[in-house]
Design goal:
Layout: H1 5-20, H2 23-27, H3 31-40, H4 62-76, H5 80-105, H6 107-120
Length: 121
Amino acid sequence: MGISIKTRQAYSEVDEFLGLLSEEQRNEIPQKLRDFFKEEKDQAYFKNIDKYNPIKDQNLKEETLAIIALLNLKYWCKDEEEKKRLQMIYTQNEEKYQETLYQKYNPNDIFKKNMCQMNVK
């Protein structure tokens, strides 16, 4: 199974984002990783990120934001206290996301719904 179009588009957004950074910031990301985004991106997809607008207002893909957050945590964030704070936020967000998925796709509830539908017929 290959990389999805959605993921390739996120890589395009990340590659474009990295291109807007200063050379110093960009060079903090390993060349191999930057090359990966460039090679695996959707070559036909362009986002046109405006460097003068906040990232939250750019309507970027969720996957793009997650990758940028990871790059920030791993390569740009130098303050250990800030790293801990970000990791805590990311962990809390992941727990909320997993809870939402569980509620939405709870096997017990799905089974109950299927049984109710069967009894209606």
